[in-house]
Amino acid sequence: MQKSTLLFLLVLLSAAAYHIGRQRSLQVAGGAVRNLHSLPSYYGYYAALWCGIPALLILFLWASLENSIITQLVISALPDGLNSVPSDRLSLLINDIRNVASSAVAGEIDPAIEAAANHYLKLKDTSNRLLSVLAISVAITGAAYARQRISKEHRARNYVEKSVTIFLVVCSTLAILTTIGIVLSVLFESIRFFQKVPVTEFLFGLDWSPQMAIREDQVGSSGAFGAVPLFMGTLLISLIAMLVAVPIGLLSAIYLSEYAGSRFRATAKPLLEILAGIPTVVYGFFAALVVAPFVRDLGARFGLDVSSESALAAGLVMGIMIIPFVSSLSDDFINAVPQSLRDGAYALGATQSETIRQVIIPAALPGIVGGVLLAVSRAIGETMIVVMAAGLTANLTVNPLAAVTTVTSQIVTLLVGDQEFDSPKTLAAFALGLVLFLVTLALNIIALHIVRKYREQYE
Predict the structure, then answer these.
(1) Do 251 and 272 contact (CB within 8 A), yes or no?
(2) Domains in the chain, please, with CATH?
(3) Mind listing the pLDDT tens digit for each residue in 223-249?
(4) Cα distance between residue 351 and residue 270, in whole Å
(5) pTM for the model
(6) Which of 139, 206, 408, 434 keeps 20 to 30 A from 37, CA to CA?
(7) How many CB atoms lie within 10 A of CB 381?
(8) Is-contact 372 242, C-beta < 8 A?
(9) Which tens digit of pLDDT belongs to each residue from 343-374?
(10) Residue 279 is inside which H or E element, if any?
């Protein structure tokens, strides 16, 4: 039995255990729910947990250890001439055996490898059979144990809620550990990079050319890792994007929250937020095929030299993409302003526009600023639009009509293809990622601090 089929069967057994536990609770209570400590559904959940969780733990542990154990058994069964090869050659041999077992190899096959592949398949089949018998037996035993423990005084609700609490704690712990693991991996690789390239050269250097030369007498044989052109390109595109997104997003939020009718608002706001759900690669195609040629042709009419890939094209499309971030957050903060402030302004004779300019916007300004900072962090981390519309040329310029590149696009470029993680060229991607992480983290912390201060003021 395949693991996917076994998992589906365990789900069905857990559902059956739920109904068994629920019916058992009604049976011991004589049909009177008031005689039970918990609701019947909690007894059903209790039985389902005893049925599903131990079996799922066995399935998870078995799947984690199965490949390594089967691999060792296959290696031990190889002929003497094959199981004593070096470790790197042995890993290739294991890959060949797995490819033959999966029928991914055509042509003539070594008889020894074919025999090992057949042995591998037999071990896999035996493992799946043993796992199926063990998991199903444990699931049935757990359901029977839970049914036996059900009584009028049994605190099923306490056990179920405690299990849910443990599950939530485990999930949150995994999320925290995953974040810590990502940060540490980037940090350690960045430290390796800074051992080869000085930090000052990376942060303040004006030339970015990470391609390592083949000959020592070649120009730039050690590579140039000055990241200032990348930082400048990132800031330039982000600035253009915010010049598009902030006015449009803020004005649309003001209109939707203060001027638009309820029917129009109910239709327009979801349509506006659809922009946030469009994949960024679609925005990249739109920027490369529509916006960039339009900007180039428009500049040519005025005698301007516009690159086929420009910061202006990427910034315009990126600004369109992050309009929902600014609009939705600003709309929420404007609506959070107490109605008493509006009523007080109207009572003093202020018009609606004066109330918006002098009362509502100043009151909602901390939240709006926080939303804008979150949108900036989103713009800084964008990749696909920049790669497809702004180019990959590291130019130290503030000209929006020229081709530039950003930190994220260079990370993609440096890690594409087969790379050796010992060269400064590849390790530079981790250093760029660390800088990008610190910048976005700082922006998010500032934004959350501003928003929290705003919420403390009105809540």
Answers:
(1) no
(2) 3-154 (no CATH), 224-458 (1.10.3720.10)
(3) 678 888 888 988 999 999 999 999 999
(4) 29
(5) 0.70
(6) 139
(7) 16
(8) yes
(9) 888 898 888 889 988 888 888 888 888 888 88
(10) none
